Predict the 3D structure of the following.
Amino acid sequence: MGNATKYLLVLYYSRHGSVLNLARAIAKGIESEGLEARLRTLSDAKNDEADLPYPVVSLDDLTQSIGLAMGSPCHFGLMASPLKAFWESTSNQWLKGELIDKPACVFTSSSSLHGGNEATLLSMALPLLHHGMMLLGVPYSEPGLLSTSSGGTPYGASHVAGVNSQNELSTTEYDIAFALGKRLANASKKLI
């Protein structure tokens, strides 16, 4: 990357704002370690790009980053289709090995406590592993994992939004997301 700005890509898809709130908490964790967090999103037929709070991701955003945090709502234990479609467009990056050895982590939000958070996190991990990225989770040294009664897993940060997306991030959910951002930043700094 030469003298270009080194940044971590925080890529998310969010329809009701819960995943966006996790993305922002992860970005704050990244920035607390002195690295730039570049938030990017995805569009679909239900939203206008002009109304999105951050730019739509490009393949250059991904390949020029030094690492990735990726978030999606739970859709029956799977990542949302706009995010899946984005990864399906990365064959050239895979063939060139452009993401190999970059650190990555995942985050998600569901409507209910048993809404598929861990399954969604694992589904998001698959394309990252195929690209040769180094997947980071949340270690149990993070105290919130042992006390949470809502979101937060060792596979990544998560949130329980409620059926009508009425729940704000709990303090524990925020802390876990922030800690995951810090961990991603620290891992990235060791590799640059």
Remarks:
- Strands lie at 7-12, 36-41, 67-73, 103-110, 134-135, 157-160.
- The two ends are 10 Å apart (CA to CA).
